[in-house]
Amino acid sequence: MPVPWEAMLPMGLVVVMFGVTGSGFSLAKRMTNEGKPARHSLDDWEHMMMQRDQRLTGSLRGQAVNPVAPPNFATSSIWTTERVQT
């Protein structure tokens, strides 16, 4: 069975364009995650820790090495409260 050589050029273009778009998407995803691989299958604990890291460092992927939280961390709680009328 002969190979249709005239179909190789369009097929090559399709393969190259899928490769370029896949690599571009991977690069964009990695750039939005500060150069780290994307996270998958996150549970509630990991979401809570990501929110804590966001409040501590200003970044979802950043982590603080200082054992003492900054002073504004005490007032940046994610829990909403209501004022009690006395």
TrEMBL record:
It comes from the Eukaryota. It is a single-pass membrane protein. Keywords: Electron transport, Membrane, Mitochondrion, Mitochondrion inner membrane, Respiratory chain, Transmembrane, Transmembrane helix, Transport. GO terms for cellular component: mitochondrial inner membrane. Pfam families: MWFE (PF15879). The chain crosses the membrane at residues 7-28. It is found in: Mitochondrion inner membrane. The keyword Ribonucleoprotein does not apply. Accessory subunit of the mitochondrial membrane respiratory chain NADH dehydrogenase (Complex I), that is believed not to be involved in catalysis. Complex I functions in the transfer of electrons from NADH to the respiratory chain. The immediate electron acceptor for the enzyme is believed to be ubiquinone. Belongs to the complex I NDUFA1 subunit family. This is NADH dehydrogenase [ubiquinone] 1 alpha subcomplex subunit 1. It comes from Tilletiaria anomala (strain ATCC 24038 / CBS 436.72 / UBC 951). The lineage of its organism: Eukaryota, Fungi, Dikarya, Basidiomycota, Ustilaginomycotina.
